[in-house]
Amino acid sequence: MKRYDLIVVGAGPSGLSAAIEAARCGLTVAVFDENAKPGGQLFKQIHKFFGSKEHQAKIRGYKIGETLLSEADAVGVKVFLNATVSGMYMDKEILVRRGDAMEHCKADAIIIATGASENMVTFDGWTLPGVIGAGAAQTMMNLYSIQPGQRVLMLGSGNVGLVVSFQLMQAGCEVIALVDASPRIGGYGVHASKIARCGVPFYLSHTITKAEGPDCITGVEISQVDDHFTPIPGTQKHFDVDTICMAVGLSPMSQLLKMAGCSMIDDPRRGGQVPLVDENGETSIPGIFAAGDVSGIEEASSAMIEGRMSGLSAAAYLGFLSEKDKDSSLNELEVALNSLHQGMFAPGSKGKAFTKTDEGIAVSQSLLKKGYLDEADIARFNHFDKKSGVHPVIECTQNIPCNPCQDACPKDCIKIGKTITALPRIDADSTCTGCGMCVASCSGQAIFLVDEDYEPGYASITLPYEFLPRPQKGDLGTALSRSGQPLGVAEIIDVRSAKAFDHTTLVTMKVPVAQAMTARFYKREAQRAEL
């Protein structure tokens, strides 16, 4: 039997973070993961993270994963892959399957960071080939460079459904529609806006009633639902698709904790069956900890902080860290975690309908129901005295935990309030240089540079662009509105790429000045014939 000071089950963001902190305190740490590659969901996440500097905001998920693996290796963490932990017992012993062999391992403390599994919903034809989970789609695209399908319908408008829909389009798939039984979009509005301005419609208060096809998916039928989420006869709509992608929530993979005898609770707000834990992640059994989605579904940024907290707590439990040093470190991490637990999307706000932002501004109903801001919203949220020349326009209207735009601006043009969930504002006393750092750094792609005085009768709009092939200077294409409607011909007058932009290309298009505050996306010439 192999022995370690600490065993961590799960090599995802929380598990690796926990292992690193514990190993830094001097523990011998082993991490077991059933997958062939470490990093959990991080290497599927090609988008930029939200939060602040301490949360690794504006850094793409796979790069965060690379950093964690490098740190784990540097401090001597042993990571065992293709290692399935099939049992855990009260004396902190686990049973691990590696290949055809079963091994027993024992530790003085254990951290369970097994994450969560995708939920599915059933409907007529849901077992046909072509019905997949959003996580499976991410795996195919971002790990193996395989298109999940050509024409895809997404079920679910939470952050997972929104993010994966955008990544499907980046992979060259056509997203036909996003469908959700809820009457409002569940994820960040900035994520929804990225999709809406590409011309993808949202069907809220709708659900899938039938998947069509004899041997695989060839079409899908959706229907409107009533207040009890029951399909309304006569409201059916048909779409020709070859793939149905489901993003309908996650469930904590807490079976090992239950097997070991940890006290459990059924908490729908945290995703289902979760362990009872204290503020440091320790379960009802001393020396057994839980971190990340296994103790409650949250974003990866929160999971990494919780993992670090559990790693430090395990080190203190085993005497490798003094209580004073533990408390000092945990207090700092608690502040960072609490900053993510504020605003409209805080864990305690699930299910709540907000009518006003923290600043007292009426929430955009168009954003919640259609995925884009209307002109009245823009007038309410963009209060600035127009100056001659280029200036930023910020279309971030929800209290989400994010502030890299403030740090990115070298001229301090953008200000965030006391919390990272405050809405960003333009400082009227600062002068924009047009450097574009705010545009590139915005994780929600919600900042644009506008110059209504570019030349007589025309304005320039600089927007973030993350599709291939990139436009080239001189190209002619179509300007699209926030809702994805064609506005007319747009000419590309500048294309900028830089290491500091981290794979976000800044594309500047020339449009009639009347479109300066309405044009928000560019479709290439080859795509214009499709409109």
From TrEMBL:
<feature type="domain" description="4Fe-4S ferredoxin-type">
    <location>
        <begin position="422"/>
        <end position="452"/>
    </location>
</feature>
<keyword id="KW-0560">Oxidoreductase</keyword>
<dbReference type="InterPro" id="IPR036188">
    <property type="entry name" value="FAD/NAD-bd_sf"/>
</dbReference>
<dbReference type="GO" id="GO:0016491">
    <property type="term" value="F:oxidoreductase activity"/>
</dbReference>
<dbReference type="InterPro" id="IPR051691">
    <property type="entry name" value="Metab_Enz_Cyan_OpOx_G3PDH"/>
</dbReference>
<dbReference type="InterPro" id="IPR017896">
    <property type="entry name" value="4Fe4S_Fe-S-bd"/>
</dbReference>
<feature type="domain" description="4Fe-4S ferredoxin-type">
    <location>
        <begin position="390"/>
        <end position="419"/>
    </location>
</feature>
<dbReference type="InterPro" id="IPR023753">
    <property type="entry name" value="FAD/NAD-binding_dom"/>
</dbReference>
<dbReference type="Pfam" id="PF07992">
    <property type="entry name" value="Pyr_redox_2"/>
</dbReference>
<protein>
    <submittedName>
        <fullName>FAD-binding protein</fullName>
    </submittedName>
</protein>
